[in-house]
Each structure stands twice: as C-alpha cells, then as structure tokens.
Design the sequence.
C-alpha cells in the first residue's frame, strides 16, 4: 500500500502553531502519523497561505488537518471534501490577515492547482493560549483524526 | 444639514485589523479616522533589560511580512550605539536580504491586496479566476524573494541568522549561484509587472505631501543614508527625535507621528522614489520612465507602479550583489558592549522604520523606541481620505466605501506593526 501511495503523490498537510494551545492540533496529528505511516509526505506548516499553496503543487491527493473556531463543541471533528466545493467561511474565515487556509485552497482552485483529491479535517479548538497544552477534548480528537486519515490514505 | 457617515467595521486586504470612519456634513468631509483597534503589543517595554544582541530577533517578531526591516533597524542602531561600522561584503549581504524582503512584501501587496481594486475584483481569488497566469507569475516572483531570505536568514519568515555585527553564518559564493538563476527570471517577471500595473486606470488626483525617506549616497536606500524630505529636511538618524514626535489619538492604539514644525508627512515608496529615483538601476529607471512616472509621483493610487519598479530594482540589485560577492573573512565583527545610545532608520517596504536604544554598561537595553512606517503614515492616510472623499460623496455607499478602502490600501499599512504602545492615564479629579 505504501508503494502505491508513493506512485501517486499523497501529502498530509498538517497546519498549526504548536505554541498556541489547540492551534497545534494539526501538528499533533502529524506527529501521530509519522510513527505509523510510510510512503506519504507528511508536511507541517504554520498556515501562511502562499506556503500552503506551494505545498499543494504537484500532489495527486492532499489530506489537510487544521484547527478551527466555528462555535461547535471543542474537539468536534468535521471532514470536508474540498475537491467538491469550498470550505464553509464561518469556520475558516478568521485568519488575522484575512488570508488563511480557505483562501489558499480557493486560490489553488482558481489557478487549477488544487489536487484532484483534497480533503480537510477540521478540529474545533477551545483554548489558544500561548504555551498551553492541547485541551483534553482536542487531544482525543487528534488520535481519532490520525486514525481516520490513516484509513483514508491506505484505503485509496 | 445632511449628515452622512460611512463606516467600515473591518478593513479587508490590509495587514492587521483596523476600521475606518468618515463623517460628512453638507457635502463636505469633516473627519476621516483610521481606527486601529488591535491590542497594543508592548514590544518596547519587553525589550528593556534584554541584551543588545537579542534586539534583532525580538523585534523581528513584530511583523511576519517585514521582519528583515526590524532586524536591520535593530542591528544598525546597536552598532551606532557601540561605535561599530559594518561594511564590505557584510554590508552587501544586508542589502541582499533586504532585497528579498522588498521583493516578497511588495509582490504580495501589488498582486494580492492592491491590484484587485484597479481591476474590479473583490479580492485575489476572484482575480485569479480571470488572470491565473499573472497570479502564478506573482507567486513565483514572491518565491524568488523568499529564497533570498531563506538562504541568508536561515528561514523565510522571522529569519534567525542576522546578528549585531553581521551574520552567524555567511554563504559561500557558490551557494548564491542558484539564487542568481532564479533572480534573472524574477527580473523579467518584475519588468512585466511594472508594465502590467502601468496599464491600470488611475484617478487623476495628487496631494502636496512632504515626502520623507532615507537619501542614499548615490544608491537607492535600504539601510543607510540621511533622513531627507522634499521640503529640505536633511538630518542624521541621531537627530530624528529633535524633528519628529509621536502623539496619541483617541481612535487608535497606534501612535501618530508628525514633523514637529510642519505636521503630517509621507514615508514609503512614493517618498523613496521622489528622493532617490536618480539612483535606481538603469533598467528600473527606464521602466519607471516608460510607465510614465516622471521623477516625482504625488498620486498615491500610482504607488502600485512604484512598488513594481522597486521590485525590479531589488532583483537587479540582488543580482549585482551576487555577481560582485567576495566571501568575508569572518561572518561578524565581535563587539564588546558599553553604555551608549544608538539610532537608526532603514527603509521597510512600507516606509521608514526608526529604532533608538539606550544601553547600560553591561549591554542590557535600558530603553527602546520603535517608530514603524504605519504610525508615520497614519496622519497622511487620514488627510488623503479627507481631501479625496469629498469629491466622491455622490457615489452610492458601497462605491464610496470601496474608494475609501482603496485610498488606505494605497499606503499598504501594516496595522500589526503599528500597535505597540499604550499609555494609561487616569484623572480622578482629586
């Protein structure tokens, strides 16, 4: 399975800032995946839009994990098939500089650079304090998302 | 009396979070307030008691778009305090990393934040649907700037290789060669960008600004030169506090800077160009002429062309530096601390950035002062709005709001940089 994943370029793009509490959820998923998944490019990013865009280049399938703030219960996991349509803005429109994941993906789509398969897992965050650990609900969600991603990637 | 109030609660396509309020009475704009409500950031306070060597890395954190500017103003101010001059290849490498920042910051602003205003799009994504080739070109051009910063700075954002006295590590000549190949392509894209922006439709309006910028000694300025103005100011950075002051205004967490005797002034691309256009590289100068800029441009809407010209210059200058580069004997000059005060102004992409530090005998920072370009430009941005918006009052609210937002974006304000100070005073009347 790992070999077929290599033939098609599959990336797991794990976004977040580990210094900001639950914003580190995506990065924690990367750590969990590294221990158990070969043949997939596991990438960690802070989320700057043009860097995200550059990472998508040439990928056949991209699995993206990021924390979000949408008013849902902390630790709630949502899966969006971005190849079918844009992310809902209510969950991802909160970037300070107005140019976050949602915009990066839509820019990729406009440029014809969106990978044919593109899935986003969003983990609802609760506490974004500097230096905080993941809150318990989010830490539990990280394990679940890592399992589901593994299944997604191996099941392709 | 008819009263018309235009409020924009959340400005889009600027760096950071701000708002705008324009009030008109009987067809005349009475007031225009750029309301900056990001919380203050206290950088000057938490620099106190840190070692002089820490200032470049701490102040780089003020901005993710222009960290190199903060590092350059910090190292030059510290070297000024400690009586050290860095020249030769180390000085050239500092110009080179600054080229990288101009390329990436200006390219982002020109294409993603500003161009959609001229072409009638909500934002870069909508523009990319119709102009994919141009947006792709912009992303590649920005990447060339990022590559310079990554190579010299150790990483693309918040570089970690800059130090007082020079660098922690300087590159081998052969490491710079791949950059040169990228930059040759980037220079072509930059020239195409100048021509592209020159074709936009600009409102035919000007303002009588006092332009303030560094004036380089025969070179377009990054980190060195005297502080000059279009009305005869010609001072060293040491004299900045004698001529400029900052005041607090109720509607902004950012301070407003003024010339003590004359009030508002403008710093940034229009000012740099007005005071230094003769020092551009021949290619950049020709492109500016071809774009119809003349030697001075006082139409802030056309600042987008000057940013494009400066990107072209930065590509050209970076190539010159790489071509001439000789590896320095050591990556930095070792510096022993002593008591002193140091001053420096350098040219961040959005304008002049002033730092002043007072050092204790052990090299710890006794106090720090940082005046970012957006604090300096805020009064002029508000005057632009007051001057221009009266003529636009016949427009419907949406169109008027858009024109006002565009007027602010002309100056590429970085609100995150500017919110760094808050003084709390309470008067209880007893």
Sequence:
């Amino acid at each position: 399975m790992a070999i077929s994943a290599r033939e098609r370029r599959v990336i797991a793009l794990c976004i977040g800032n580990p210094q900001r509490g639950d914003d580190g959820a995506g990065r924690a998923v990367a750590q969990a995946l590294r221990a158990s998944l070969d043949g997939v490019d596991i990438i960690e990013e802070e989320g700057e839009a043009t860097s995200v865009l550059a990472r998508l280049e040439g990928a056949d399938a991209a699995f993206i994990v990021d924390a979000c703030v949408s008013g849902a219960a902390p630790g709630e996991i949502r899966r969006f098939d971005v190849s079918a349509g844009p992310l809902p803005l209510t969950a991802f429109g909160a970037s300070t500089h107005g140019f976050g994941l949602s915009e990066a993906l839509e820019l990729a789509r406009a440029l014809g650079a969106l990978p044919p398969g593109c899935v986003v897992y969003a983990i609802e965050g609760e506490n974004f304090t500097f230096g905080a650990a993941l809150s318990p609900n989010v830490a539990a969600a990280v394990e679940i998302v890592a399992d589901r991603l593994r299944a997604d990637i191996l099941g392709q | 009396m008819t009263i018309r109030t235009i409020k924009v609660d959340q400005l889009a396509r600027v760096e950071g979070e701000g708002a705008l309020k324009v009030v008109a009475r009987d067809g005349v704009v009475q007031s225009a307030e750029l309301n900056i409500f990001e919380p203050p950031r206290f950088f000057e306070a938490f620099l106190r008691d840190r070692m002089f060597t820490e200032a470049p890395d701490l102040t780089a954190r003020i901005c993710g778009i222009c960290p190199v500017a903060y590092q350059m103003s910090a190292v030059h101010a510290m070297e000024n305090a400690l009586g050290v001059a860095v020249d030769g290849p180390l000085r050239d490498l500092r110009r080179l990393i600054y080229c990288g920042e101009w390329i990436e910051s200006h390219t982002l602003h020109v294409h993603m934040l500003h161009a959609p205003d001229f072409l009638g799009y909500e934002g870069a994504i909508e523009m990319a649907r119709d102009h994919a080739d141009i947006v792709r070109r912009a992303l590649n051009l920005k990447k060339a700037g990022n590559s310079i910063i990554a190579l010299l700075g150790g990483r693309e954002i918040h570089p970690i290789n800059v130090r007082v006295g020079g660098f922690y590590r300087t590159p081998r000549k052969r490491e710079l060669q791949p950059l040169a190949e990228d930059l040759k392509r980037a220079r072509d894209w930059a020239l195409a960008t100048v021509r592209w922006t020159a074709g936009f439709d600009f409102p035919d309006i000007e303002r009588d600004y006092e332009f303030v910028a560094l004036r380089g000694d025969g070179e377009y300025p990054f980190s060195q030169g005297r502080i000059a103005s279009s009305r005869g100011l010609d001072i060293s950075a040491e004299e900045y506090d004698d001529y400029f002051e900052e005041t607090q205004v109720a509607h902004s967490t950012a301070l407003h800077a003024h010339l003590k005797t004359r009030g508002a002034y403008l710093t940034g691309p229009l000012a740099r160009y007005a005071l230094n256009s003769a020092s551009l590289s021949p290619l950049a100068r020709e492109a500016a002429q071809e774009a119809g800029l003349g030697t001075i441009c006082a139409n802030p809407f056309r600042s987008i062309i000057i940013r494009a010209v400066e990107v072209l210059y930065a590509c050209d200058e970076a190539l010159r530096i790489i071509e001439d580069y000789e590896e320095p004997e050591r990556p930095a000059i070792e510096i022993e601390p002593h008591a002193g005060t140091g001053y420096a102004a350098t040219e961040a992409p959005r304008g002049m950035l002033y730092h002043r530090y007072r050092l204790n005998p052990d090299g710890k920072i006794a106090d720090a002062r940082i005046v970012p370009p957006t604090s300096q430009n805020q009064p002029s941005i508000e005057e632009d709005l007051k001057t221009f918006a009266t003529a636009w009052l016949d427009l419907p609210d949406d169109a008027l709001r858009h024109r006002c937002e565009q007027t602010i974006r002309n100056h590429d304000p970085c609100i995150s940089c500017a919110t760094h100070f808050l003084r709390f005073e309470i008067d209880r009347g007893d």
